[in-house]
Amino acid sequence: MKTSFCSDNTRNLGEEPIGTATTCQTYILVECPTPWASEAFTSKWVPENLRVLVEEVKRSRQPIKFLLITNNESHKTDEKTLLIYQQQEGLSSGYDKREFRLENIEQAATVIRRWLRGRNPGYEVETNNSRDILVCTHGSHDMCCSRYGSPFYFHAAGTIADLGFTDVRIWKSSHFGGHRFAPTAIDLPSGRYYGNLTQDVFQSILTRTGDVNCLDKSYRGWGILPSQMQILERELIYRYGWEWFDYKVAGRIIEQTEDKSIVRCELTLEKPDGSLYNYQARILKNDEKSVELPSSCNAKQNSMFVKYTVASLWLTSTKFITHSA
Fold it and tell me: Are 206 and 4 in contact (CB under 8 A)?
């Protein structure tokens, strides 16, 4: 029987990945060795107190995404890393990180509960790491993440080492969505999502050099923005180039039709010098680019994925910062 891989199907149909980043307020990343079960937090190395906590948070519908992470060193020691990334308020460049070094994974639930209650969790450490890149390799959840994610992780780790980026960590991660774009990744602390990655595109993302249009087939969007607005942000990346990644942004939907086929939205950006630019855009559902296909290797039926296009974009206001001599 021939195996069907969802990411092969997606590439063959030419689905654009933009607009598929998950909007998330908080990421809680727990270092845990593999193997992982299809439902990651039922894996044998996940302690019961952590399973219970994850289920409690899910039932409360808090905007928190729990993920398991691991690297090539995770199985060599009981000591484990816990990372909590929380979205910045207002004009934002992404997420703020808190890092904890635990004696073992059994301590994770207690530390997370203390953090959720606003108490001092203890075990916090300061590190020199400026970026954490998560690559989904969760093959028990979807075959494509093993078939494409695992080799990508291996070569990406080599790319980071070859570039001498000692402040960038790369992790294997449990499922965070979009496996039909495998290999797929999240770049934290920005919270940007990527898919259909190649090593050349990955190097451009790491170094923020080269033709920014390489993101056309790989950029899934920025997780701090609503999905309908993610194509607007990509349009502005094309206008500003890689320097866009140094800007702070806030976005909101002003109005939309009931079926979300027409959206008017506003995006404000702040440059490093404090200058402010306010854009508005009219975004339309694009029936030609919307696709119906399997969302995963295990899907028994097709799903419809709606795509948008920026119909019009205009600058509504600017505020320049002047510095006196």
Answer: no
**6-217: what CATH class?**
alpha beta
Tell me the pLDDT tens digit for each residue of 152-190.
999 999 999 999 999 999 999 999 988 889 899 999 999
The dihedral formed by the CA atoms of 105, 97, 196 and 165, expressed in degrees to the nearest 10: -100
Which CATH number is associated with domain 227-319?
3.10.450
Domain range list for the chain: 6-217, 227-319
Query: What pLDDT digit, counting tens, does each position of 227-260 carry?
Result: 999 999 999 999 999 999 999 999 999 999 999 9
Q: What is the CA radius of gyration of the chain?
A: 20
Whole-model pTM over 0.70: yes
* Of 6, 3, 18, nearest in space to 229 by CA: 18
Per the structure block, which two tokens stand in for 229?
């607005």
Q: 125: which strand partners?
A: 99
* Token digits of residue 49: 């107190």
